[in-house]
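DM from R.C. (forwarded with permission)

"hey, sorry to bug you on a friday — could you get me a structure for this? deadline for the figure draft is monday and I only need the backbone to look sensible"
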Amino acid sequence: MYYKDFAEEYGYCSTSINTRINTNYRISSIYRKFSNPNFEAWGWETLLWNDDNIEKQYNVLYGLESVVELHTKVSNQMINERL
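My reply, with the result:
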């Protein structure tokens, strides 16, 4: 069973990816359903956190490979900026 099917059947989502960049920053993505009366899609919502505050929200991604690439890119950029 695909995770999307499982989440739809049981009505929730618990898949997430979290990358700790340093003591203050982390990037997190959660796989969830986006919907309104005319639209429904599943995708990865990604946020950059500074402690408990959202610093940036990224465009929704639809592939796991894209999420991993985004986490890697943001982590590397932030690490290089602080060197």
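R.C.: lifesaver. Residues 64-81 form the longest helix (18 residues).
me: no worries. The chain has a mean pLDDT of 86.
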